[in-house]
Amino acid sequence: MDFVLDDMRLELAKVARDFFTDKSPLTAVRRLEDDPAGYDPGVWRTMATLGWTGLGHTEESGGSGGGVLDLAVLYQEIGRSLCASPHLESAVVAGGVLAAAGGQDGLLRAVLGGETTVVPALMEPGGEYGPAGIRLTGELTGGGIRLTGTKVLVPYLDTAGWLLVAARTGDGVTLALVDPGATGLEVTRSANIAGAPLFTVTFHHVAASGLVGAPSMGWDVLGPVLDRAAVLRSAQIVGAAERLLELSVAYARSREQFGKSIGAYQAVQYLCTDIAIAAELASLATLRAAALLDLGEPAAPAVAEAKARASATARLAAERAHEVHAGFAFMMEADVQLFTRRLRHWELDLGDEDHHRERLADALLG
Amino acid sequence: MDPRFTEQQQEWRAEVRAFLDDELPPKWERSTEFCEDEEYWKFAVEFTRRVSARGWIGLTWPTEYGGLGRPMIDRLILAEEFAYREAPLANTIGWGLAAGALLVGGTPEQKRRFLPPIARSDVFWAEGFTEPGAGSDLAALTTRAERRGNDWVVNGQKTYTTWGSHADVMFLAARTDPDAPRHRGISIFCLDLKAPGVTLTPLYNLGGGRQNHTFLDDVVVPADALIGELHRGWNLIMNAFYGGTVQAAYMEQQRVLDKLIAFCRSTRRRGRPLIEDPLTRDRLVEMSLIIEGQRLLTYQSLGTMLAGRPQPYAGALGVVVQKEGMPRFAELTNLISGPLGQLGEGAPFAPMDGGPEAWYRQAFRNHAGGTSQVKRMVLATRGLGLPR
Lengths: 366, 388
Known about the structure:
The structure holds 2 protein chains of 2 kinds.
Chain A: H1 7-23, H2 26-32, H3 41-49, H4 68-81, H5 87-101, H6 105-112, E1 118-121, E2 137-141, E3 144-155, E4 162-169, E5 172-178, E6 185-189, E7 198-207, E8 210-212, H7 218-254, E9 256-257, E10 260-261, H8 266-295, H9 300-325, H10 327-330, H11 336-348, H12 353-365
Helix pairs in contact in A: 1-4, 4-7, 4-8, 5-6, 5-7, 7-8, 7-9, 7-11, 8-9, 9-11, 9-12
Chain B: H1 7-23, H2 38-53, H3 72-84, H4 92-105, H5 108-119, E1 125-128, E2 144-148, E3 151-158, E4 169-175, E5 186-192, E6 198-204, E7 210-222, E8 226-227, H6 233-239, H7 250-266, E9 268-269, E10 272-273, H8 278-306, H9 317-337, H10 355-362, H11 372-383
Parallel strand pairs in B: 1-4
Antiparallel strand pairs in B: 2-3, 3-7, 4-5, 5-8, 6-7, 9-10
Helix pairs in contact in B: 1-3, 3-7, 4-5, 7-8, 7-9, 8-9, 9-10, 9-11
């Protein structure tokens, strides 16, 4: 039983901290809010050069080795900096699916090298996370598939090389690769709180370019990959929450009212310590889940605990930070809102708190 | 980072469980804090001496002081299993507080003198910190020890003395230099509770246990009863507060949760088993999260200490989580157990034989060792760097 990060991972955290501090200051984060792609391709290429787009994948498949725990360390730093990129969507989810399903070695290599991006299209207008929420119809046609239905919250479509679509085929879910330029696709950008490049995509009898994995067995491939992604989203939330804590403490120390620093008032101290407690617990749960996934141990309850805690932390950290900063943080020029809006997106992504608490209940109580 | 216990550690856990199966009848599975039954206490002392006979009281201490020199993780495993069974291990102040202070700040001579009798469970200790005017603000203590020849003469009053009537000696904090600033000039002594001038009067607590006022009138303490350095007791209090051991109170809660889950499986409400009720299920999840949070923080704290790294947030976060979790956890047991949850032990139809009734009352012990508000202040100032 060893519950601390080893020196190598602490070193990765330090390198990543320096990298994102340099490449993704909050001024850059603001600038990208008006950018259609939603991320900086130059930063993305450098991340690929560092091997980070292939992290968590074997070197034989084109990755750079390492596991979920390494990724979790990296994601805490991504979260801290609010650095936007299609890493989770393409490198982790699509890359994970392609690696597990097999048969797409060239594409997998390109994804892990950051040369192309594949973005998952999972969520539908019903708003239900999980296999039961997949209703977009897949019509299997002698080795191919035609898709009819609608996907929402599809990320980073402007720059995507491929869409990875989950479709309903009878009792199962089938995964298919779709060319974003395919005939019958209707794409609209959706306004959203994070200002993220999220799209609604309607499929009118669209012919997919190919299947990924066996027909109707898609969730067997997708499920474990989404667990891994949920843990990393949790790590990202933890990083952002810790940054909000630092911003709140710094503001509470410097802001004076009634002749003293507001950080000396216990009411304000409670707000700050609330963030510290929630973020620390979410951090530990996230690292435990990541380690168990790497070890191949049963991890479902640990994953659910991590995302349940992280999703709750996302809300709490934002709310407490706004309380500490008060009117100042309500102004767009203050940085707190940059975190508040993204945390809301991450909180709801890959299963919200309720979803993961229900999973915990099922694991605990049957 | 590996959250698993090794095979060797799992074997040790099995050994501890087997010991408890052999030595602890279910009827005595209850905390020494909240039972004053004479027969129970006779058993608790015997049981504690049987733990001593295995060498497990001083499990991690150096062998020269009556210990076995085993790794701290083994102590954690022992603590988890003992807590899960509510084993009546007496002398918490002895093996926890006093031994912790001695190991951290005792001279070799003090260690040789005081530790082996604790390891053997020959001498039982009570805590002598809190005073009527010095609780959270412990440095306000006014009990004084004055030098007279080779001895010290102690005058003052201690309060909330847990286990006072079951103890032989007191781990006493007294002011030895009245002219020094208040954090200096405090010393720690081992005070004989049978000495002339000691009077204990009972204070019965909400949990069902006895604490005490302890009046100290001209009590003579020999010079060699000093623990640590003269006038430096405050450092010992700050650095060695239960530092020699590791606690796993979350396993008491795990035991409660397991009982409650069994209760929910066997109870029907609103036409279905309670275990299928979504609100109840989520409350059980919340209880599980309270337990897991403490477990994670305990493992992290231990691992950080063993790695020789500084504790995150100055080590002040875990204790806040533990203290704030206790009343909420107890509240949830009562919300789930329903209208009969107010019935006490032995009452007909009391769910879980009155467990929820007792758990609710006993959860208000969470202030022991400092209130959660004080711990939040420490977290805010020392942990986060906010101003005082």
